[in-house]
Design goal:
homodimer; TIM Barrel; 7-stranded parallel beta sheet; two-stranded antiparallel ribbon; 17 helices
Chain lengths: ~375, ~375
């Protein structure tokens, strides 16, 4: 990673901009941004959800044993761990080191990220009286370290920086359940039993997500991802009735900023069309749905991101490569951002991700591009 | 539940039988069996996965604090807890009180069901040397209590008794991970990294499942369900390549017994056609896929089972009823066995399930049957 001169805080990615800024010029050839926008791109861009984190020895070396929230609040440290995977892997995008629970923690709801557990809420949301605990974010007062991290990163990076927020439903699930949940039972009971209160909560969380994303983009992020990680726990009817309107408000609210909007969840095979319709430029897909099927569901004019099974990365390299080539073939090489179907598992060997990036970069759709890169890339299997 | 005279151990459900036995005569009008077979049935049959268990006060009263394996090994106790939900709810089928890990525990693999955790394996499967630990079941020597429970139940019940087994993949996941897992990472790493060994393991587990189901049917079960609870963690390609052939061997192996075969998993929207093709008469569907969509995927000639979200049962009654009516409307009233999309959650109020059974029994497709039952049933919402 070479250090580049600091650019404007706008990230230069808005299509409504005037002359490109320094950053904009640097990112003009970004395959990631081109793929997000459905424009031509020579190679398939690749990054990995949770590319920064426990799978990297350099991450473990700089991080203490405490809450990851401490790392997020330290702009220098957050900058460093965001850069680590970009340096090591040569991925086509960086993603801000943060957590979807940072904003709701920053407004004082009482959230910690317990090591080995995940988000834990001291006093879960349980009734109307708790609504007042979900106020809007004042980014400069509540999360100055986030914007500082973004500005430092934009000054360093020569690939786009992705900002992100938790979608209203997924954040609500943590607030209501109080911890990670397999069934989301309390959340669904509230959603079905008191839809008006549930809508008020999601409305507030939509505002929070919108403010979060706007602050990140204003500070320099070139794309945003809305993580509705647990939306796949819902039936399509419940998703459309109780969740989609709030996610739409977030995604449509950032549309004017001119940066690509990625919308992602796990187990969302039945929801892909709705998640696209909510206002996504790019729909994230987990490994359960072949990308060709996903493309039919989201329709034309939208890119896809995904979808190698993260667990596949624990297999020997030849098996990883075979699975990755299947993903690339399904993606068709255009309007496709290669990623895992969910976050990097902590036990993943970084060497595997390194080789994956090489494999993806060597891929050319239709097999035509394999010529020049064949020496570096493993042979395609049938595809 | 009235006590009925003991019938033959064949359950009388085989279509290749001669004159119906006492049990066969008793079950001749079973709406559950008719729906499984795609035959005409007046009302939609209903039962609940995990209908016996922690949600029932009478269950908690008779069960000690120990492992549920102790209860399974006590035929009188297992009989009693199997009967409890049939008595209370008037469901149209009983399901043997047991666990998918019983057979593999009975052959000495070293399995316990830890309260609040699930199956825990003392020495997980980690290599070829462990294959010999997965021998076939000798039902009379290894699980005499299971067949004894089945025989006692068949003597008591006037609804069909469903036997069951864990599908090879799901049982393998527990054996390999050593405990319940969100990612099934070790399982997939073995599947992709050493497919030959993985196939050997699944082959043995298929034999085990087949022997298990045969023994249950011989003892009197009138239907079987193959639980591939975690198959939905796989991509369709991986499912077809590494799992389907083994599940098919189980399902096709029980075909000759003439009892309906239900094939169920969670999050299997992309796998429904394959799970049907594996040899199912009935495909279990979780709440993520509307039954009308599921019906298209499994094709004609197969019944569906499901698919109310178990978490919906924690909502106030009117919300439960609305969700249940949506399921009934989607199911179309024919070739549909009403169930939850997964097991009853422990915190479910039994009164809710009781009302659900009434609601399902009062339903008539097309609204025509609402006349006579309208006084008991809540009004349909649009459907």
């Amino acid at each position: 990673m070479t250090r580049a001169p600091a650019g404007s805080s706008a990230g230069g990615t808005s299509t409504t901009d005037g002359p490109p800024t320094a950053v904009g010029a640097r990112l003009a050839g970004s395959s990631f941004l081109a793929a997000c926008r459905g424009e031509a791109h020579e190679r398939v861009p690749v990054w990995f959800m949770r590319q920064a984190g426990r799978s990297l020895p350099e991450y473990r070396a700089v991080r203490g044993p405490g809450s990851i929230l401490d790392t997020v609040r330290d702009a220098d440290l957050a900058t460093e761990v965001t850069l680590q995977p970009v340096r090591r892997y040569g991925v086509d995008a960086a993603i801000l080191y943060s957590d979807i629970m940072v904003p709701v923690g920053a407004i004082g709801f009482g959230v910690d990220i317990a090591p080995g557990v995940g988000p834990v809420v001291e006093r879960p949301f349980s009734g109307p009286a708790d609504l007042d605990r979900v106020r809007d974010l004042d980014p400069e007062a509540d999360t100055p370290y986030v914007q500082a991290t973004v500005r430092q990163l934009v000054a360093e990076l020569d690939v786009p920086l992705i900002g992100f927020a938790g979608a209203p439903f997924t954040v609500a699930s943590y607030l209501i359940e109080g911890r990670p949940s397999r069934d989301h039972a309390c959340t669904k009971a509230l959603m079905l039993g008191d839809p008006a209160l549930f809508a008020q909560l999601l409305d507030r969380l939509a505002t929070l997500a919108l403010t979060t994303l706007r602050a990140q983009v204003t500070a320099g992020c070139s794309a945003v991802q809305l993580f509705d990680s647990w939306a796949g726990a819902l039936s399509p009817a419940d998703y459309r009735r109780h969740v989609l309107p709030h996610s739409r408000r977030v995604l449509e609210g950032v549309a004017a900023l001119g940066v690509p909007r990625i919308h992602f969840g796990v187990g969302t095979g039945e929801l892909l069309a709705d998640m696209a319709a909510a206002g996504a430029d790019v729909v994230g897909v987990d490994w359960r749905v072949p990308l060709s099927a996903a493309r039919q569901r989201v329709g034309p004019g939208r890119a896809l991101q995904g979808n190698l099974d993260p667990a596949a990365c624990l297999a020997p390299w030849e098996a990883v490569a075979r699975a990755a080539r299947d993903v690339l073939a399904e993606g068709g090489g255009r309007g496709h951002i290669f990623n895992l179907g969910h976050g990097v598992l902590p036990e993943t060997d970084p060497a595997t991700l390194e080789r994956l990036v090489e494999l993806v970069h060597a891929f050319r759709p239709g097999g035509a591009g394999h010529g020049a890169s064949a020496a570096r890339a493993p042979q395609p299997r049938g595809a």
